[in-house]
Amino acid sequence: MEDGKSVTFKSAFAFYASALYLGVRPAEQTSYSCRITLQIILEVLTTLQTLRCVSNLQTSPELIPIKNKTASDQFFSKYDKFISKRFDWEAQAVKDEVEWRAKTVEALYPRIPNPPLPLAASISSHAGIYREEGYGTYIVECKEGKLVIDATDRSWRVKLLFTHVSREFFTVEKLDVDSREKTMLKAEFRLDVDCSVGQLGIAILSDHADLLIWFRRVLPNES
Description:
Blueprint: H1 4-21, H2 32-55, H3 71-84, H4 89-108, E1 128-132, E2 136-143, E3 146-151, E4 158-166, E5 169-176, E6 182-191, E7 197-202, E8 213-217
Antiparallel strand pairs: 1-2, 1-8, 2-3, 3-4, 4-5, 5-6, 6-7, 7-8
């Protein structure tokens, strides 16, 4: 008959294995803290299994000394194989994020032309200062061919990364610096009659994915 500790460990390990079998893993809605918690659970269960196996080295029929290999050598050989097969959380997180991006872009823009249409003006010409009375001022910078907004100097510290979709339409990945949560938004630039960029619209409101808040570009001669 198994002791209480053995039963408890087996139950915990079975629960964890069942979670993996059922596909419970970090998805786009899973917070960063949950991912860390699940990883800690895995490490704890792995350690518990190690301790339990070490305590049973002398009684396990599978680990009797053979061909100059001690029971300890055999155990750690088995343990190394177990460790090498552990669930790769980092690889799964990358895979989940790639899938999330693809699905989100398709949901925001279901009719993207193939191939996508090029920008009407250069990507660097979209950089500048944009202002909206309620939301204040955003500075759009062009870094390594990508448009970015660093708004970490505000109460809600966020960074916005633009990705071109087609013509003047973009997606914006909003990263909450404190919680590490990511949200994908719509964005669009509007050109003036002389083909200069005059406005920037961003769907800032999370519950209104199609409602763009329009920021007017601040001209160099404006204060």
